[in-house]
Each structure stands twice: as C-alpha cells, then as structure tokens.
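Reading a protein record of the kind used here takes only a little practice. These numbers are not coordinates but entries in a learned vocabulary of local backbone shapes. Here is one such record, which you should read through line by line.
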Amino acid sequence: MSGAILTLAGATLTARPSGALWWPAARLLCVADLHLARSERLARRGGTLLPPYETTETLERLAAEIAALAPARVVCLGDSFDDPAAGAALPPADAARLAALVAGRAWTWIAGNHDPAPPPFGGQHRTECRLGPLTFRHAAEPAPDPGEVSGHYHPKLRLPLRGGAVTRPCFLADARRLILPAFGAYTGGLFASAPPLARLLAPDARAILTGEPSVTLPLAALA
C-alpha cells in the first residue's frame, strides 16, 4: 500500500501520497479542502484571473484515488467548493464527473467555512461525522476527544536543501488528532510551524509529506 501507515484512536490509517486519507477497515476515503471552482469564484468576484482547469485536475486526482481503492464511503472535510455558488457554477463536464463519483457509494459532505450549505450533488451533508473511534470535522478543535480528523489549514512544510528548499503539503499528526493537507489545486497552505497550527499540536507531533517517497518527520526537530 502506497503511503505512510499511522494509528489514531486505535484505527489504522494510510496517509496517501496524494494527500487523501485511507481507512482500510472501514473502506473509507477522506479528502480535505477540494475548493472546487476556485478560479470561477475569483473571476466572478473580480479577483485574480487563473487558468480555469483546477477543478478538472482535482476531480481527476480524486477519481484516481477512488479507482485505486474502491471505497464504500467518501468523506469530504469541508471547503469542497470555493463558495456557496460554486457547485452550481461547475462546467457541465466537471459536474457530470463529480455526480458520477458520488453515485453508488456513501458520500458525506462536511460543512466548511466556504461552503456551509449542502451542494447539489447528492450525499449527506453534516457539520461533523463520527464513525467508530474517529470524528471528522472541518476545523480542528482546541481540545478534541482522541480521534479527530480535520482539514481547513492546508498544512505544508518547507525543507531546506543544499542550494535551496522544497515545499510540500503535509499531514500533521499527534496522539489525538490528524490534520489533512488540502487536496485541491490552487489552494496554497499554512506552514506547519505557524502559530495557529503550533497551538493545536502536541510536542511530539509529526509531519507526513505528500508525494513520493513517503517521509515522516518530527516537527520538534524541524522547529
């Protein structure tokens, strides 16, 4: 199985190189912060004009994970759409592809700060979702029960290299929680050392970098 294996609240999980989370025992795939139709939202509101291809790219990557793992359930951890109007604004081909992905499996949309209302693609819409020992929500709580899985912060890590540095999105994990990287294109990110994340994580927290090879690093050693 590609990715890094970790345990949270007794559940054995895989942090996938793509930034998705796989829970094999539950056949559950989890992704955070797709931010679909971000370029459309920026253009609609008079912001920066970006090439309008990020939704297609994000859906292709999500479809590849679903094809590889055949999940029975998919949980999207909020900010799946860049604003409440973005779902209806998807190009027809992207809307059809997303509808096909949702069909035939249990699909849960967690409400995010960008998309608090249910999207027009079926599935369940919840503020948070508890499945077995894990609780799935958009943003981490300061003192959660063990087993919290969240997104929202788009964590990333910058590693110095000879002559430069490399920056990758990353998972952040400690004994109580797991924060997923953003799965969508055009999402940016918050460095793992930033105060909002540092306040949430225990001293023994670790980062799991996306991409290949899978690398797990203790945050304390990188500070």
In short: The chain has a mean pLDDT of 89. The helical segments are 38-44, 54-69, 92-102, 195-198, 219-222. The two ends are 30 Å apart (CA to CA).
